[in-house]
Amino acid sequence: MKLLIQEAANKSLPALKLVGFRVLCRSGEEYVEEIPKAVDQLFVQKSEIPHVVTSNGYYGVFMVDACHPDVDGYWVCMEVGEFGELPEGMEELTIPEQTYATITYQGPHTYIMKAYRELHDWISKKGCERLLNTWHLEKYSAFPSSDKHLDVELYDTIRRGVIDGK
Prior knowledge:
alpha+beta; Multidrug-efflux Transporter 1 Regulator Bmrr, Chain A; 9-stranded antiparallel beta sheet; 2 helices; 9 strands; 36% strand; AraC_E-bd; AraC family transcriptional regulator; Cass2; Reg_factor_effector_dom_sf
């Protein structure tokens, strides 16, 4: 089993414009089944999305502690340079400029939580504050293959300037 978790770091990203599907489930267990369906649908319809920045990968977007029903759920999206006409069933989402703690994970989908635990431990050791009611990202470099091997960078939002003492 190939499993690679690179050392965590912090990054600031400019605002992102995303277009894709929102997945909203009643229970956490349903997301395990529904998110892959949304990813498959995004892959099928990606050519219908105008102004796509890159057609190879996609984003998973969520708030850990959604403070409002409008932001509850998980979005499966592609980055666009500008918003255009939305394909049926898709939504647009703007992620503001934010600072993140990041870690890259490559391996089976069943071990992604190990990478999240390492990232959260790193955040804690650095004395950073996780911002749970802001957007968190999973940046996938490619659509998943049949073996469900992931190549993903996890972005956990942290308070700006905490690491560098600002």
